[in-house]
Amino acid sequence: MTTVRLPLFPLNSVLFPGLVLPLNVFEERYRAMMRALSKTPEDDPRRFAVVAIRDGHEVAPSAPGMPDPTSLPERGPAAGFGADPAKAFHRIGCVADAATVRERADGTFEVLATGTTRVRLLSVDASGPYLTGELEELPEEPGDEAGALAEGVLRSFRQYQKRLAGARERSLATGGDLPDEPSVVSYLVAAAMMLDIPTKQRLLQAPDTASRLRDELKLLRAETAIIRTLPSLPAAELTRGPTSLN
């Protein structure tokens, strides 16, 4: 088994291969990570691993608070993740390649990265200025009937988009705007749907593309049916997520 050790960036969100991740980095542990990545040779990828937080806080408390208003906030690379950080994270994550790492005058960073490859988190090291993880790359297997399933998912996704748009006159993705490669379809739809973190995590760790597409097809049909009965809909941008506060 071939493994790799990379900086670890836990988030309250799930990153999928091929999806863009904008970050506003202000905590010292992650600023140290970005300073290290900035020293990577220009022709080499600036890689780190994103894992979704199962139990903990993306941003560590910076001032005394509940339940003890006098207690000092926790510091260090594992702050907010308990005595054993590995237990605080989902084990399947995604490698991110930082195309842009720009340091601002105040020492914070503006980062734009893209998800590349799924990985399994084997262990976490909190001995340095930021968390690192030992990771095993996970291959993306197509599974049975992935192509046909992708076509069905795209049809259902367009209906889902139209329902979210409330049948108003607005620009919706057409067949020319959406990919047709099954694994790309599966990740795009997983990222674009309005789902909670556990459900998105389940889609990320599906054993193969076909399994992910089957799950998405059920979710799309169920969500579209629910939306059809709602009197009003929240505004939503289907292809973008908010910039992480960290």
From TrEMBL:
<protein>
    <submittedName>
        <fullName>ATP-dependent protease</fullName>
    </submittedName>
</protein>
<keyword id="KW-0645">Protease</keyword>
<dbReference type="GO" id="GO:0006508">
    <property type="term" value="P:proteolysis"/>
</dbReference>
<dbReference type="GO" id="GO:0008233">
    <property type="term" value="F:peptidase activity"/>
</dbReference>
<keyword id="KW-0378">Hydrolase</keyword>
<dbReference type="InterPro" id="IPR046336">
    <property type="entry name" value="Lon_prtase_N_sf"/>
</dbReference>
<feature type="domain" description="Lon N-terminal">
    <location>
        <begin position="6"/>
        <end position="224"/>
    </location>
</feature>
<dbReference type="InterPro" id="IPR003111">
    <property type="entry name" value="Lon_prtase_N"/>
</dbReference>
<dbReference type="Pfam" id="PF02190">
    <property type="entry name" value="LON_substr_bdg"/>
</dbReference>
<dbReference type="InterPro" id="IPR015947">
    <property type="entry name" value="PUA-like_sf"/>
</dbReference>
